[in-house]
Specification:
By secondary structure, the protein is of the alpha+beta class. The chain has helices spanning 2-28, 148-158, 179-186; strands at 41-50, 61-64, 68-71, 77-83, 85-92, 99-105, 110-118. It has a domain at 41-118: Immunoglobulins (Immunoglobulin-like, Sandwich). The chain contains three helices and seven strands; from the N terminus they run αβββββββαα. Strands 3-2-5-6 form a four-stranded antiparallel sheet, with no helix packed on it. Strands 4-1-7 form a three-stranded mixed sheet, with no helix packed on it. A hairpin with a 3-residue loop joins strand 2 and strand 3 (68-71).
């Protein structure tokens, strides 16, 4: 019996020593902070467009890394929740090139990356694409009427056209591709 007791003590020492080694290595083998656990999140918003027609690309896949993905709606719009910090947004759609855009996401806020413009795979190399559409200006609340002097001052300062300015509307400004033809007609 003494031999059996000796073997049990020997095994117990190895078990205790093994546990000490595991506890000592346990902290050193843990992942770096913020890999697993509580993280801060923000949002990225934008639209996916065909670079040759400026039409939306519905159902395009938008991703940040491999964990955060969403699909564009019928208007090409998307909002994607992701971890804060410097991120690369990737847009993909069948028949189009893959495009990336870099952005910095802030905690509990939404950052707009504007338009992500995909070029069709069948588009000839070297041929220019359309310029992106203008970004709509924020609408003023109905309680704050626009004054005529404020609407006329940008036209007077630019001096590009002698034509009277049109009343302010909520429609977006003309795109860059239509501006040169307007200037040629007025000169």
């Amino acid at each position: 019996m003494t031999f059996g007791l000796l073997i049990q003590v020997f095994h117990m020492r190895h078990a205790v020593l093994g546990m000490i080694v595991l506890f000592a290595l346990g902290d050193a083998c843990s992942p770096p902070p913020n890999v697993v656990g509580v993280q801060d999140y923000g949002r990225v918003a934008g639209r996916v467009l065909d670079a040759t027609t400026n039409r939306p690309i519905p159902n395009a896949l938008i991703s940040i890394g491999s964990l955060f993905t969403t699909r564009a709606d019928v208007n090409g719009g998307f909002v994607l929740r992701a971890v804060t910090g410097d991120q690369t947004v990737t847009a993909r759609a069948a028949g189009f090139t893959t495009v990336t855009a870099d952005t910095t996401i802030s905690k509990d806020s939404t950052v707009s990356i504007g338009y992500i413009r995909l070029v069709p795979l069948t588009y000839p190399t070297g041929q220019p694409t359309l310029s992106p559409p203008s970004t709509p200006a924020p609408r003023t609340p109905p309680s704050a009427p626009a004054t005529p002097s404020a609407a006329a001052s940008p036209t007077a300062s630019s001096g590009a056209s002698a034509a009277p300015s049109a009343p302010a509307t909520s429609s977006p400004a003309p795109s860059a591709s239509t501006t040169p033809s307007t200037q040629q007609m007025s000169s």
